[in-house]
Amino acid sequence: MPGPGTAAGTAPGVKPVDAAEDPSGKGGVPAAATSHGPAAPAPLGVERTPTGNAEVDTLLERLADADHLPADGHIEVYEDVHGGLCDALTALDARPAPGPMPSYNNRS
User: By CB atoms within 10 Å of each CB, which of 17, 59, 69, 108 scores lowest?
Assistant: First the structure.
């Protein structure tokens, strides 16, 4: 329970900022009050370290495509990358194709 004179969700001694207030004191309308739509897509700035596997590295670089898409477009990129990574892991479990059989008719 907040103490006397303290708004719910704020620490004692901290004045809550009203959404309509301009915290800069410049008298303008705060940016939060003028924004009516979703924010534009922006890169997350996550660094990708190369793995040394060209196929996997290409798939991981594909994740950067999501940086320029709205959130509802991320699923296509994530599903594409996930499918590619699953294929790469499955390929590790596959047995190599048999090579040519050695010839036992080699008479010297």
Answer: 108
